[in-house]
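Protocol step 4 of 6.
Sequence for Transposase DDE domain-containing protein (marine sediment metagenome) entered exactly as in the expression construct, tag removed. Do not edit the line below.
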Amino acid sequence: ITKVQVAPNVTDDQRLMVDGIGDLKDRTEVETVWTDGGYTGPDAEKAMREQEVEHRTTAIRGGKPSSGDDQLKLEEFEWETDKEGKPVKVSCPGDQEVEVVAGRKDGRFVAEFDEELCAACPFSDRCPAKALKRRPVRVLRINTRAAQVAKMRKEQKQNRKEGNIRAAVEATVRSVIYPFGGHLCKLPVRGIIRNTQMITCSAMMVNLRRIWKYTHTPPRECVQMS
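Step 5 output, structure tokens:
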């Protein structure tokens, strides 16, 4: 446990991420942070980009895209974004890679795909890109936030394949609050300062117990199966 934050239960998790990631980066040089969906959002993602920390999530805030039709979803495209989170390139499921350019309005972007290649694509009838009458291209219009969410959903699916460490994190959190009634977490003190002191001390004890166990438990012998 390397970071403890205590706040009223009405505090947005995204706010905790914004307030805490800078200090955590300075002290630990962390490169990757795993969170649940509550810690996602424009402000949190901006803070992570500024600190150059990879943000992996087990879920994403907001509703899932509708699955009622057969149209390709934006997360089925491969999105490349710049340091500010703006889309710069996109690859479609039909293997066309094109640049994404700024649209007429701020925060809007356009990707143009070759109509001739699109016509021969097996996903042509399901593609969200729309054909233009005056030019032989298909246009996909998108805003900054939609591209960011699509990229995160794509990465989230990959994270699931690599394994989910949420259970281990939840177990660690439970070990901190267990002395105070588990998930009810009723501390015998009041006020942010006193609550923070108690939770910090509890987290320190969890760390000490785990360090002691690690240093005093003999390594397991590997048994070779023939």
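Step 6, annotate. Residues 81 and 87 are 4 Å apart (CA to CA).
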